[in-house]
Design goal:
By secondary structure, this protein is mostly beta strands. 9% of the residues lie in helices and 46% in strands. A hairpin with a 6-residue loop joins strand 9 (153-158) and strand 10 (165-170).
């Protein structure tokens, strides 16, 4: 506990130190050590109405002015492009919105498939020595359908601690003599 005679001195020192702080600025998001992506990428699906055709809507918006922006729609094996493009260019200006659509046919067997929008942008960056050069950034956004395949053979065994049945994945391993 601070003695009463010292409290006034501590309070005065605290007030004087606050007066020396720079003026309060607007709050900003704490991004840690990782910067935000300079491109906003969104992909969504209009679900099929009783059929296997899905319409994909996507949007690309540079958060910073870039030199060039290109997009590519990666379709997993089993997804068939029915309508639209899989490659294109987007406007590189800051906040310029580029939108697109594509229609795909989902596999009839319900297996796991994924559509990924991959957007690549180029901008003039600077290295630690102040040298400027063209740098690239890549941002991805995905949608998926179907059931994920099992990672391996599932084995049910008794848990040693709880004595309850537990599912485990059987992973093949090779053992060598003497090890």
């Amino acid at each position: 506990m601070i003695p009463l005679s010292m409290r006034a001195a501590v309070l005065a020192a605290a007030v004087l130190s606050l007066a020396a702080l720079p003026p309060h600025s607007a709050p900003h998001a704490d991004r840690g050590c990782k910067p935000l992506a300079p491109i906003s990428v969104q992909i969504s699906a209009r679900e099929p109405s009783g059929g296997p055709v899905v319409t994909l809507d996507f949007a690309v918006r540079p958060v910073l002015g870039l030199q060039a922006v290109a997009w590519h729609l990666q379709l997993a094996d089993g997804l068939t492009l029915l309508e639209g493009e899989v490659d294109g260019e987007a406007a590189p200006e800051r906040d310029a919105l580029t939108e697109g659509t594509a229609s795909v046919v989902l596999p009839a067997d319900g297996r796991f498939v994924r559509a990924t929008l991959v957007v690549t942008g180029a901008f003039m960056g600077h290295d630690e020595h102040g040298e400027s050069g063209l740098e690239t950034v890549q941002v991805e956004s995905s949608l998926s359908w179907g059931e994920l395949p099992e990672p391996g053979t599932i084995v049910i065994s008794t848990d040693a601690e709880t004595r309850a049945p537990a599912a485990h994945v059987a992973v093949p391993a090779a053992h060598r003599a003497g090890r």
